Amino acid sequence: MIDFEEELKKFEPSMEVEEAEDAIHHQDLTDMTDLLRAMMEKTGR
Amino acid sequence: MECFMCGTMVDGEAFCPHCGANIDTYRGILYASNSLYNDGLERAKIRDLSGAIDSLKRSLKYNKYHTSARNLLGLVYFEIGEIVLALREWVLSKNLQPDNPMADRYLAEIQNTPGMLEKMNQTIKKYNQALKYCHEGSRDMATIQLRKVLGLNPKFVAGHQLLALLYMQDHKYGEARKSLQSANRIDEKNVTTLRYAREVRERIKEQNKNKKKKKKEDIIAFQDGNETIMMPQNSFRDMLDNTWNSIINILIGIGIGLLVCFFLIVPTVRQNAKREAASTLVDANRELNSSTSSVASLEKQVESLKEELKKYTEKGDSVTSYEKLMEAKEAYDRRDYEAAASAIDVVNADILDLRGKAVYDEISGAVNEQRLRVGYDTATRSYWAKDYAAAIPYFEYVLGIDESYRDGSALFYMAESCRLTGDVEKAATYYTKVTELFPNSNWARQSAKYLQQPAAPGDAGGAAAGTVQ
């Protein structure tokens, strides 16, 4: 049985065009390669 | 390939010969990223868009520089109606990989389509508004808004899902199913869509079960001796659906219609006809009365016109009047007053010119004078012969032409004649006229005396105090 209120919480406002620039700037672009690089730098390769 | 640490070209080595970085691990990362991209591509091909998004996002977590994965992710976002997310991915893709013809093409396509971005943005705003309505409990408003959104952007999966959820909450499972089918046509493996669809199916099944149960309850059972008889308890609608019953119902309907016609409509029509006939009769009588009165008035008018005509016909016309005037003039010149009088009576003075009028007046005056004189002489002769009754008409004739003839003597002798014939009232009238018209005359004094002491009839001698002129 679906709970309407609970389901409703899962729907989030869609991103508007005005917010696109912020979204691009604040996008977390860290990938596994970055992590590996960081790890290697930390351990001194 | 290049070393991820120093950028040195490496081939099959496990470690970078220049910086000693673990190339095997890096190679594994790239391999995982590629695998996930391939998975995402396969899923996108079979329209499992939500699965594709998941795989592509994971691929980019391994390798953010996987341009194809990012471009494809943008395309999938665009397909499910998330235009801003699509733009974000294409812009990032372009920034991370400047030589990127695919991202260039997608961005150019959006920019070169007039109004597209604005339309998409409006759609998103409306969707967000609808979501706000949902949270505020205005489901009707939200439904209306979402219909608008899907009218503008039919590929907006989240919109279809939210609309389906609203329909489900309002127990409109049929409409919810339609909405979910639309969402499913865009993204076939979307978990939310599938979950809602299953719920809707179950609800519809339950509804159908309830209907069947209700139908079963319509069957009635009763004991007939040792046997239990079961028969459907037909509703009124079922009864109407039955062919024979329908025919019977139609016949009954026709019968009722005919009865209504005979007992209600026909008497009303007859009554109306009678009422109309009566009112027509009344109108006709009224018209008859008015025409009768108008006939009477017209007859009266005709009579008066005849009278008027008679006056004119007795008088001569222009030619006749002049002829008679000449005749009267000739008779007057030879002193034949009788002939002159008879001719002048026919003349119509109104149509004569000035000269004719002057001649007419002259002859008429002379003829009248002659008439007065003859009349007066005749009257006085009768009076002195004591034939008062004979004198009265002549005096009346004279007084009709000239009331003051002979300075009141005609009036006085008229009064005397009346008194002596016993008509005291008429005599008093004439005596009074004498006193009024000729107050200083001898006739007036005698009249006053008679008015004070009226003489007895036959007292002629005393009255003849004056002299007849």
What does this structure look like?
The complex is a heterodimer of chains A (45) and B (469). Chain A has 45 residues and is mainly α. Chain A has helices at 4-10, 20-25, 32-43. Chain A contains 3 helices and no strands. In chain B, helix 16 packs antiparallel against helix 17. Classes of the chains: A mainly alpha (45), B mainly alpha (469). At the A-B interface, helix 1, helix 2 and helix 3 of A face helix 1, helix 2, helix 4, helix 6 and helix 8 of B.
How large, in whole angstroms, is the Cα Rg of chain B? 68 Å
Largest sheet of chain A: none
Quaternary state of this entry equals heterodimer
Segments of chain A where pLDDT lies below 50 for 5+ residues? none
Tally of helical segments of chain A: 3
The largest pleated sheet of chain B is described as: 2 strands, antiparallel
Biggest sheet of chain B, strands in spatial order?
A: 1-2
Rg of chain A (CA only): 19 Å
Portion of residues in beta strands of chain B equals: under 5%
Report the count of strand segments of chain B: 2
Give the class of chain A from helix and strand content and strand pairing: mainly alpha
| Head-to-tail CA distance between termini of chain B | 178 Å
Helix content of chain B: over 70%
Identify the overall geometry of chain B. Answer: elongated
Q: Count helical runs of chain B.
A: 19
Distance between the termini of chain A: 54 Å
Strand content of chain A: under 5%
Number of strands of chain A: 0
Mean pLDDT, all residues of chain B: 86
The arrangement of helices and strands of chain A along the chain is HHH
Helix content class of chain A = 55-70%
